[in-house]
């Protein structure tokens, strides 16, 4: 019998007499709490907020910073839609230009987005993609291989020492790294330059050096993540695998790699989403080895954006903003696409 | 809960709309005034428009007291002067002009973007001294139109005359609007006279070792044939022993045009008039093609290093000091550090057996050539082309008697003290001689005429070299050429005759001058060509190098830039920084392209017409008919002779 059906009806004295229950008991029954209602989604969320309000309070400053410095400035996206009469510099007729005023009263246009698609842009994107795809194919697995190798060393203290040494180049600035290597390849005074010539100033070798120096500098640091992920694998699995008769390679392939797959998936997605960025500092510094030959022929997207916004002497806000928006959209697409690919192939993804 | 959130969002949106609607947008809410009349007509100089009676240049303080002028704040380019803004010069300026100035300097790099930020933030500078690229902000109406002030105020009239002493003085700051009305947006500061910026420095001991003086009868090469012979012999003699040796040192790609080697081919100076009467960039000139062929020829022979384009002045100095170069292209300003580097290394003195001192190296180990004459020298280029340099009666250099080096502007939002700024700049021009030449008794002393020198009162321009011969860089002995000019002092109405020295005089500069006045040009806000001839000469005597200023250029001695004194023009200005650096890459690539220099040069020549910079979606091609037409129109309107 459903208790609710009984309790939902008021109990009269006559009914009480009929049932044989005492009036006190009936009053208690009348005063019983109302049936529990489903709070629904928002209600549940509100209850959780109330429950964890002190923990959430810790997030408030960070969220405030994020809102003020990341979300409010997104309002600047609107600059990308402004035309040639846009300027924030005080001038005759407009002595107090305001951002709001320029946005409202100056012409709106899509010309800045149309202007993105020019030969120089496509050339920069092509150079960027070539470098990043090769990095993904060569340097990305290199970190994993190095981490696996270090984890397989018997003497882990020695492995850690090697890891520290490999990490040292990461702490050198690109200026030092490129200055050192370009000196080695100087045609007149460099050790390698006297033998091979100044390959670093040769446009044909530019991408090679970008990737090689990048690998030399960052592989050690990059493998730390995988090394620590491997270190956290339960050793009993390896013991079991040994008992099963697995050799080293089999253990690596069937045990180590799958165990660190979440880490690999995460870094792979992040690498794919950053496919349009090659690292401005490295590329720009390497171009200075021979600015004349390299700047125009080996331009990448980062240096192109720098040139058009500051470097070429044409004071401009709208066009670089439009290019930045376009770049961000492509990055978003790449991130979503990369996550889809890793979800399908590696069965892991960011979400 | 959903309902509550929806209500909050709706309230926020309505509130935002309300805030937007009620926002005071200041200038944007103003309605246009006036009936389109000419608001600059002011026949009676009362600063009220004759057509509408309203104040011209509203916002300018017309009631000024020049006896107690307002303190001013000025922004200057990076000077490199120690204690800039707080040294001997600022005291002279305050004494002589009566103005208390606060000085600020820009940074070394990113000047353009710094200026943008300064203007956007409305930094309180009463005036700014800018380069040509930054002056181009005038195209957006950022700077005050000075035309009315220059015409209708006493101090403005003084300033106008003093600048007008230089031919085409105001051209570089004049803008003609669509209605044909001329506006002046800045005050130009000139490079004084035609300048000899660079020289070829030779290791004289090396030249003696290869027998150059014996072969040609003089110590240094004077023609292109002699240069070529000397470089060949040096490379064969010293390069055979050391693969790192290259006879000619070039300090990097920016120095791809070596003046002394380019001028025998008569490479144009920045721009030239083609056969159709159109202004073109000098990179497109056939003379440039011949010069590139020659440099490529030197490159292929190993006379120039394979890494010449990534070298630097410091590297070149070092290699010269190690005797890995015998000839180097050195700038006037770099000569002292060049000699210091040789002394520091000590190898040159040791190799030649004399005492390793600055004077010995300066006087005995090195010598310089300012000009090389074309003598019809012929050679075969890498691609088989037969090239001949010009056959010249006299050696030429590329240079201009007048060139605007800086622009003084008043930001529009700071126009309140415009009259004080104009008055200050006018007074600075009136004390030019003291500023650049120093003060008698403080920075120099009058001395007796050196024995054997002609009398000061007998000086004429034709006899200038007779006086130069007795000047001494070592003793800092200078002959002040007589110069004078006259103008009407608008403040007093009097005719003034400014005489630097009526009949010339001999002076000796002292340490105070050498330590201080040499940097004074950084404070300068302009000069005129009359004073420039004299004051430049003072400064060069402190450098112990060659004669930097050429006050009396012989006819035909210089290849002039037809666009000298050009103001920033709208199209060219957008690419005037990037186009030259892009095209110099073509020159650099062509020189270093072993077998086919012209393919590289052609690629960049054509590329400049396709490559463009974008601003607000508008394309500005690095070069092409649009820019050429704009420059040619200005040239025809301002410079073309009938």
Describe this structure in words.
By secondary structure, chain A is mostly helical. Chain A has three domains: 1-37, no CATH class; 41-109, no CATH class; 116-345, MetI-like fold (Orthogonal Bundle), CATH 1.10.3720. Chain A has helices spanning 3-7, 13-19, 23-30, 40-51, 53-71, 99-105, 111-114, 119-152, 156-167, 174-184, 191-196, 203-231, 235-244, 248-259, 261-273, 280-287, 291-297, 301-311, 318-345. In chain A, α8 crosses α18. Chain B folds into four domains: 48-190 and 405-429, D-Maltodextrin-Binding Protein, domain 2 (3-Layer(aba) Sandwich), CATH 3.40.190; 198-398, D-Maltodextrin-Binding Protein, domain 2, CATH 3.40.190.10; 433-559, no CATH class; 571-638, no CATH class. In chain B, the strands form ten sheets. A five-stranded mixed beta sheet of chain B has the order 2-1-3-17-6. In chain B, strands 9-12-8-13 form a four-stranded mixed beta sheet. In chain B, α6 (154-164) crosses α16 and α22 packs antiparallel against α23 (597-610). The mean pLDDT of chain B is 87. Chain B has 24 helices and 26 strands. Chain B is globular, with a radius of gyration of 28 Å. In chain B, 36% of the residues lie in helices and 16% in strands. At the A-B interface, α4, α6, α7, α17 and α18 of A face α3, α22, β25 and β26 of B.
CATH homologous superfamily identity of the largest domain in chain B: Periplasmic binding protein-like II
The sequence of SSEs of chain A as H and E is HHHHHHHHHHHHHHHHHHH
Count the DSSP helices of chain B: 24
Give the C-alpha Rg of chain A.
Answer: 32 Å
User: What overall geometry of chain B do the principal axes of the alpha carbons give?
Assistant: globular
Please identify the structural class of chain B as seen in this structure: alpha+beta
Classify the secondary structure makeup of chain A into a structural class.
mainly alpha
Overall residue-averaged pLDDT value of chain B: 87
Tally of separate domains of chain B: 4
Question: Low-confidence segments of chain A, ≥5 residues, pLDDT <50?
Answer: 1-11
- Shape-level CATH architecture of the largest domain in chain B: 3-Layer(aba) Sandwich
